[in-house]
Design brief:
Blueprint: H1 2-39, E1 47-55, E2 58-66, E3 73-82, E4 87-91, E5 93-97, E6 100-104, E7 113-114, E8 121-131, E9 136-139, E10 141-143, E11 150-153, E12 161-173, E13 176-188, E14 197-201, E15 211-212, E16 215-216, H2 217-234, E17 239-241, H3 266-272, E18 277-284, E19 295-297, H4 305-317, E20 329-331, E21 334-335, H5 341-354, H6 369-372, E22 400-401, E23 403-411, H7 415-423, H8 425-439
Parallel strand pairs: 1-10, 1-22, 14-17, 14-18, 18-23, 19-21
Antiparallel strand pairs: 1-2, 2-6, 2-7, 3-4, 3-8, 5-6, 8-9, 8-13, 11-12, 12-13, 15-16, 19-23, 20-21
Helix pairs in contact: 2-8, 4-8
The structure holds zinc ion.
Length: about 450
């Protein structure tokens, strides 16, 4: 009896094993056949990818194709084709240079392929060209950059996350290796060290920021940041602070304006947490009492909806005003601060004096480091350790960038602004949360 049962168990185990193997192998064959079908539609010519990155919640890609019929193009799209051959189209913009076509998802770094709403599944990314005579061509893409594959975790919604993996692969079709881009999207539990959003309370340590009377920017920003974190957590987001306010505030503190690029400095805290968005909280100052109101600083080359919404909501809900400052202003309450020519020259001069090669800064490089450095290659991050006065931004060369905004709540030297900031904190927090709910948790 005993040995018979043992045999039965063994037999059952074998049968289940063979069944599982057969199912797995069939699925493999099915996917392989589908992949073959999708990739056999493509042109012989392969598009070359010059640039690809994620910024915030969007994936952007730029590639070049040789195309002899470039004069007859009706339109070009990026196509995400799933294994059942369903196609999802994404707009592309393109420029024709002789017979070469440069195709981009967008010229705004926070637009392109929105990664948050792609269903779980396996996809191949292709380029689809439609001609004036209704002919259609598909192109596969090959990576000629040295950039890393992308692993992206979606923003936490209803306690759940997806992982989007974007990689370059090859498929052997009739003895020819065809390069292609694949996207795998799957439901996952978000790793412990990954967060949705970082909040960066400005200054801290030996650097109090703007000071008026007994009030210090670093302290007010800290209070706001702690409350904002709590509020965002209450709507289900996973939030990390770049400092917690317990740092040494003496004049000799190791936590200072130079330590932002240290291993545990605010820039690297944000990079390590793989957040999608960063919000820096600051209080403004000016040498005369002529300015007041709220300013939102945004990166260059972004679509400004989030920045505008932050400004509008704060002004309306916290009963403040759009800033009266005109320098670097783009629209009411929205500012883009990039390097000016004299600052670029000054930076180069400083580099030569200290004996290192000047940084590659242009007049579209963001001036504020929490906007520039956390954006990686997309925003022109450059603190790579060559200046020995600073640490290193470990993510300066990353193609996964954090979309970052800096909020100047108001002017510490203006009576009304200061009173409002001290007494009306929860309204400011309501306003910022409203934008985040509308644009980020959607
Ligand atoms: Zn500040």
């Amino acid at each position: 009896m005993k040995s018979k049962r043992k045999l039965n168990t063994l037999g059952l185990f074998l049968i289940v094993g063979v069944l599982v193997a057969t199912v797995v192998f069939s699925i493999y064959l099915y996917f392989n056949a589908k992949k073959k079908k999708i990739l056999s539609n493509i042109q012989n010519e392969i598009a070359e990818v010059n640039k690809y990155y994620v910024y915030g919640t969007h994936f952007n890609i730029e590639c070049m194709i040789d195309n002899l019929e470039s004069n007859n193009i009706k339109d070009i799209k990026y196509e995400l084709v799933d294994i059942s051959e369903n196609e999802k189209e994404y707009n592309a913009i393109y420029e024709i240079h002789d017979n070469k076509i440069k195709v981009m998802t967008s010229n705004k770094i926070n637009e392109g392929i929105y990664l948050e709403d792609i269903e779980s599944g396996r996809y191949i990314l292709l380029l689809k060209i439609k001609y004036l005579d209704d002919k259609v061509e598909y192109y596969s893409m090959d990576n000629i950059t040295g950039y890393q594959e992308i692993e992206y975790y979606t923003i936490t919604k209803k306690n759940s996350n997806k992982k989007v993996k974007i990689e370059f692969a090859t498929y052997n079709l009739d003895n020819k290796n065809i390069p292609y881009i694949k996207l795998n999207v799957s439901k996952v539990r978000m790793p412990e060290k990954v967060y949705d959003i970082s909040i960066d309370p400005g200054h801290g340590g030996s650097d109090p920021g703007a000071v008026y009377d007994k009030y210090k920017e670093a302290e007010i920003a800290m209070k706001y940041s702690i409350e904002l974190k709590k509020r965002l957590e209450s709507i289900g987001l996973k939030v990390i602070l770049t400092r917690d306010g317990t740092e040494d505030t003496s004049e000799t503190s190791k936590f200072n304006a130079y330590s932002v690029y240290d291993f545990d400095g605010r820039v690297n805290v944000v990079g390590r947490a793989k957040v999608k968005y960063n919000f820096s909280i600051h209080i403004n100052s000016y040498d005369t009492n002529t300015l007041n109101g709220t300013e939102i600083y945004a990166p260059s080359n972004v679509s400004l909806e989030i920045a505008q919404s932050l400004a509008d909501n704060i002004v309306r809900i916290a009963n403040t005003k759009y800033s009266t400052r005109n320098t670097d202003k783009v629209s009411d309450g929205v500012y883009v601060r990039t390097f000016k020519e004299d600052e670029i020259a000054e930076s180069a001069k400083n580099a030569r004096k200290k004996g290192f090669d000047p940084y590659d800064i242009t007049s579209s490089t963001p001036y504020l480091y929490m906007i520039r450095e956390v954006g990686g290659i997309v925003t022109g991050a450059y603190i790579d350790g060559r200046n020995k006065d600073y640490g290193t931004n470990l993510y300066y060369n990353s193609n996964i960038g954090v979309e970052s905004y800096l909020i100047e709540l108001g002017y510490i030297i203006n009576k009304n602004d200061l009173k409002n900031m001290l007494n009306n904190q929860s309204a400011y927090i309501d306003a910022i949360t409203k934008t985040i709910e509308e644009y980020i948790c959607k």
